[in-house]
Amino acid sequence: MEKYQSDILKAIIYFYKEEKQYNLLLLSNRSLKEQIIANDWIVDTFLTATERSYIYKKGRMVERIGARIAAKFSYLKFNPNADFQLLSIVNDNNDVPFLVDKNTRLNRFLVSLTHTENYSGAMIMKE
User: Fold this and answer.
1) Which of 21, 30, 40, 48 is deepest in the core (most CB within 10 A)?
2) 66 vs 68: CA distance, rounded Å
3) CA–CA separation, 81 vs 60, rounded Å?
4) Where are the beta strands (DSSP E) in 1-127?
5) Which domain holds residue 9?
6) Which residues, at least 6 apart from 6, have a Cβ–Cβ distance to it below 8 Å?
7) How many CB atoms lie within 10 A of CB 84?
8) Packing angle between helix 61-75 and helix 29-38, nearest 10 degrees?
């Protein structure tokens, strides 16, 4: 993970739990919003065009951005070389999120996203 990514994560992390089969990460939306304002490149760096389009259509942008960033950082435990621009969190027709890496759906991983006014989070579980 590049240093700027690590610094951003340290600034926004609220809670982190790592286990053998899963990774759980919760972010502070207030801190995330401050980081987005201070570093306008964050959204373009961490999210794909498809993710940005989905978020802009759905609203509650900071919360949805946070949940997807949390999911991507959580996935890094299982694949430390993952490229954020090749990794996407996509929703199926039932609005259930799943991981796509280099245009391939990662069926071995379950994705759970959550977001409230104050916190965003994700859990990635390896089946």
Assistant:
1) 48
2) 5
3) 30
4) 13-18, 22-28, 87-91, 97-101, 104-105, 109-115, 119-126
5) 3-126
6) none
7) 18
8) 90
Burial class (CB in 10 A: 0-12, 13-18, 19+), 2: exposed
pTM surpassing 0.70? yes
Domain of residue 14, CATH code: 3.90.470.20
Instruction: Look at the chain and count its residues.
Output: 127
Helix (H/G/I), strand (E/B), else coil: 70: helix
pLDDT of residue 2: 63
Residue 6, judged by CB atoms within 10 A of its CB (0-12, 13-18, 19+), counts as: exposed
**Cα dihedral 41→46→47→48 (10° resolution):** 90
Tell me what pLDDT residue 47 has: 96
Cα distance between residue 4 and residue 11, in whole Å: 11
- List the chain residues with pLDDT less than 50: none
In this structure, what token pair is assigned to residue 52?
A: 């940005």
If one counts the domains in the chain, the total is: 1
